[in-house]
């Protein structure tokens, strides 16, 4: 039985199928998440959230109609959960005790300044938010065009266009 068949059985509430799906997919999913996140607590949280979502939403798996990969669907859920986890942690770590001054800089901008030169930091900071989001997903988080499309909720063509525009804007700003 493949992952798609297991997902169809999970959708009908079959706990044995869920356990088999977990046994088969958890090792590679955890390895893939660990390549993108060094925090074992966040990886464990994402794994738990992912499989809870699979149990609750297996009926929405498009592959049940024969047009999707079970592993791909599972990864798309995990990828979204990982990005949500990164955002949640960043908000928790960067949450100020008082209201920020109007000139306060984002924590990610300060971190980038320590790694990148002033020109590159300024160019990245000046990018439109939608262009920066694509670069962050594809370059910093290592997601593919398809995964970025799923994570940001935009078509793949839009991701490609935004990535190209971001590269052009950065090239122009740095020349």
From TrEMBL:
* Entry keyword set: Sigma factor, Transcription, Transcription regulation
Please list the residue ranges annotated as the RNA polymerase sigma-70 region domain: 21-91
Its name, as the record gives it, is RNA polymerase sigma factor
Q: Which family does it belong to?
A: Belongs to the sigma-70 factor family. ECF subfamily.
Q: Keyword check for Transcription, yes or no.
A: yes
From which organism does this entry originate?
A: Micromonospora peucetia
Spell out the InterPro entries in the cross-references. RNA_pol_sigma-70-like, RNA_pol_sigma-70_dom, RNA_pol_sigma70_r2, RNA_pol_sigma70_r4_t2, RNA_pol_sigma_r2, RNA_pol_sigma_r3/r4-like, WH-like_DNA-bd_sf
RNA polymerase sigma factor 70 region 4 type domain residues: 119-168
Write down the Pfam families for this protein, in alphabetical order: Sigma70_r2, Sigma70_r4_2
